[in-house]
């Protein structure tokens, strides 16, 4: 083996050892490897130049997220066919390109068909492969991962032992219980139990239809190290490395959100919430309060929950099969049995009640939030609060209350120009306004 080959092998092995990724999109070495037609790439180049005027070959390659080296032949073809023209030289043996009159006519024709331009899409088959490789069902979080994910929260041992198997299953769960006990907070932290980052394509294409998947609302980008000396650290820039997503929807959820939404003017599709949450978690918050009936949502998902695949319609009417690979979490203040029937409950195997805090945990929560508010913890003041305002009226101790009461004390102290302290008289004051409004449902 040559010394150069030995170095490449060592670099490849080192990169593999340093990476905990189950999937990494490799940089295409040719247009054929993208499995996209030359005409599709041509259309992206033409529409890009129609919008920005002119650009160097490397700038065009960067915008459409393909390696400059694999576009040389296409640039030459577009010049020969008088679609593009040189308008000057650029650095590193490159040229600046602009559309000819004929090219501008062609670009306008492409725009009339579909206005999408930017990153070249990824074919649906490659997306499906990536989801299967990065599914949360490939992970097996243990107690240590749960404790790390829930750091800074007060979670008792029983709740840990209930959540652990549910998180491992990846099958879905109901979190139910009285409002204010942290169901939403727990659900948001669960995704972190699975640890890894994942790769998703910016845009998918199937049967000529573009579907935008990457969404900055739900997807947090993890920047790649562009200065790595390891050749194997190169990747396909049509893909984005993100944290495992947690998609949260509440009362605004509609049936339309569960389907690919088509922009008839621009002829571009937007991926459904299920697709955006693949390889992560989808939290239906305050379930039962949506504008649609719970049975509508549940009936829509009976088959996907059973088979781990969903069927979505493209704008041209074609039905496509896409992965349904996320942990579905229903957070509700209502009893699950009051929301749905046994057939659906069987497909959500874990129903976990998040109960009110007990006294010891209530004190622990005050300690946690006192530290966050930069306030010294005063156990005597907490005992005064409990003995005067909780025990006599049998008031439940909700996990949100320590944070809320300390927040009101802080606001009172700021208004009065006083140092922030946990004092019995301060609790007496803020309790009057806090519980007057939310008495019985705090």
UniProtKB/TrEMBL annotation:
Lineage: Bacteria, Pseudomonadati, Planctomycetota, Planctomycetia, Pirellulales
Residue ranges of every copy of the AAA+ ATPase domain listed in the record: 169-358
InterPro entries in UniProt: AAA+_ATPase, P-loop_NTPase
Protein name: AAA family ATPase
């Amino acid at each position: 083996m040559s010394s150069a080959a030995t170095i490449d092998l060592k670099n490849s092995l080192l990169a593999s050892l340093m990476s905990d990724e189950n999937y990494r999109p490799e940089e295409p070495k040719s247009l054929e490897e993208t499995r996209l037609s030359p005409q599709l790439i041509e259309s992206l180049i033409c529409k890009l130049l129609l919008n920005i005027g002119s650009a160097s070959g490397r700038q065009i390659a960067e915008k459409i997220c393909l390696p400059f080296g694999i576009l040389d032949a296409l640039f030459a073809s577009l010049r020969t066919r008088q679609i593009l023209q040189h308008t000057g030289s650029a650095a590193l043996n490159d040229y600046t390109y602009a559309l000819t009159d004929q090219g501008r006519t062609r670009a306008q024709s492409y725009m009339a068909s579909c206005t999408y331009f930017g990153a070249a899409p990824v074919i649906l088959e490659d997306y499906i492969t990536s989801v299967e490789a990065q599914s949360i069902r490939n992970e097996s979080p243990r107690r240590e991962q749960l404790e790390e994910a829930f750091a800074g929260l007060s979670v008792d041992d029983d709740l840990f032992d209930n959540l652990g198997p549910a998180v491992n299953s990846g099958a879905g769960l109901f979190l139910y219980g009285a409002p204010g006990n942290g169901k939403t907070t727990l659900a948001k932290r669960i995704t972190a139990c699975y640890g890894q980052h994942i790769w998703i394509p910016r845009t998918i294409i199937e049967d000529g239809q573009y579907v935008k998947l990457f969404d900055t609302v739900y997807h947090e980008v993890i920047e790649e190290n562009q200065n790595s000396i390891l050749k194997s650290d190169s990747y396909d820039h049509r893909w984005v490395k993100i944290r495992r997503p947690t998609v949260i929807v509440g009362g605004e959820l509609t049936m339309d959100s569960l389907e690919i939404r088509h922009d008839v003017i621009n002829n571009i599709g937007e991926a459904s919430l299920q697709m955006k949450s693949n390889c992560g978690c989808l939290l239906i918050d305050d379930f039962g309060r949506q504008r649609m009936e719970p049975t509508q949502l549940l009936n829509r998902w009976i088959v996907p929950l059973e088979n781990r695949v969903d069927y979505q319609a493209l704008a041209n009417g074609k039905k496509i099969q896409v992965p349904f690979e996320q942990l579905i979490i229903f957070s509700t203040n209502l009893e699950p049995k009051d929301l749905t029937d046994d057939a659906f409950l069987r497909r959500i195997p874990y129903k976990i009640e998040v109960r009110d805090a007990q006294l010891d945990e209530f004190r622990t929560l005050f300690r946690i939030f006192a530290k966050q508010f930069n306030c010294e913890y005063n156990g005597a003041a907490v005992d005064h609060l409990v003995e005067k305002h909780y025990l006599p009226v049998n008031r439940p101790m909700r996990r949100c209350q320590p944070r809320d009461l300390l927040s009101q004390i802080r606001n009172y102290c700021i208004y009065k120009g006083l140092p922030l302290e946990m004092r019995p008289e301060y609790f007496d004051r803020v309790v009057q306004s806090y519980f007057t409004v939310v008495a019985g449902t705090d």
